[in-house]
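step: validate -> pass
step: tokenize input -> pass
step: predict -> running
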Amino acid sequence: MIHMADAGFDWIERRSQLLPDKEAIVDLASGRRFTYREFNQRTNRLANAWREKWGIKKGDRIAIIARNCPEFLEAYYAAGKLGAILVAINVRAAGEELIYLLNNSEPRGLILGEEFLDTISDVKEKTEISNYISLNDTKSDEAMGYDNFVGYSDDSSPKPDGPIGMDDPRLILYTSGTTGYPKGAVITNGGILFNCINVLLHDEQIIPSTLNLSVVPFFHIAGLNITTNPTLLVGGTAVIMKSFDAGQVIRAIDEKRVNTLFLIATMWKFVSAHPDFETADFSGIRIATGGSETLPFSLIQTLERKGILLTNGYGLTESGPCSIVQRRVDTMRKPGSIGLPTFHTEARVVNGEGLDVPPGETGEILLRGPSIMAGYWKNPAGTAEAIRDGWLYTGDLGFKDEDGHFFIRGRKKELIISGGENIYPAEVERFLSQHPAIAEATVFGVPDERWGEVGHAVVCPKAGKTLTREQVIDFLGDKIARFKIPKYVTFMDELPKAASGKVAKRVLQESYSRELGKKTNP
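step: predict -> pass
step: emit ->
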């Protein structure tokens, strides 16, 4: 096993030695700026406070639910210094879903952004968590303020209680579950390192002069690993945006001279439609990347007219995520392509028997490489289903052309991607089945001009019962994140079934998608 001491994995410590006065962090929300020396000192204080006050040791979990801020990155790097595991929770998680995530990961403590302090009372009742930190230093009876928590700890390099290896877990990120429960993808130290190597070998322009706009949420694998972590690895500057705002993105590029950014496709659509888009100066952009869904060629053309050569890419939480990336020279030459496998990634397209299919033929995309997750947290069955003979079965359908460039055709799984957020219908269906007036229900994705896809629920009330759309929405409101709640709810007496007895979901999906198409394109 390669130990972190041998591999130099504590990037912030190393950068504080090599570039102590270089700016590491710029926080747009608060105006705070930290050099690598200051950022490392803050991270050390947090790690030492965790060890002294909470007794955190190697392998312990610490959960965080917060929007992008310097403290989020401090928590990530502090966990790494101790060999602890950061559980990054989607800020939209709510109700039973949030309780499940916390009980599944069993963190020793929870860090909360100021917007989430009200959730502590529910969490305390339904979990075993006893330690809380608030990122708002306003006094609270239930959570200690962040600055107070770290204030009396020294900034010396913390000493973990054992060697920290490349195979040790660093992150748990939950993905929506095909069986109705979210699954915690375990990302290792080595997986994160090799993901960064894949990014840097793909595009050598992430360099110390990089000013990266960190706007995709850090609780998504892409928010940390597409550009933020690679930027800090090479000694660049992470410009943090608390949450996405198209106008603020444009100003960050135009006025702050941000030169590198990754946005999901929906975000790029909002940026290109903003009133300030046409007059802004984008000439300083070195790298512009999109993801989460195939980028419309019309959007690529719109951005190209402004001098932004947007590249596409493909990956999953389970793959690190950087797996297949389009080169800039291929943006216009191979429209619709997600590109070629990254340097340390192998990719295949296989049929139902697991055999490779010829170019042009659609099959399931498989991935293999050192950035692939170690497995799902406390879910050996899910791990065995996802990773077979070292290959990650993505559930995504695609093909590759004669030149080896990959294209996405659809999803073998029933995943809905709405504004870059993953929604598995089974999770929503599980909660709908708990409604006392619902006999059965199915959920699928339908096209949406704004979000790419949204959920559509078809509900069958029990005999003698009546329901409204509002009642269904309200029932789901305190159980799952808002983005997972279906936009459309329709009612039927009975769901259509295939000969096997399974719900003919594809028939419903195609029918309602056509109806929506008629409404939006009369």
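step: describe -> The CA atoms of residues 164 and 247 lie 42 Å apart.
step: cleanup -> pass
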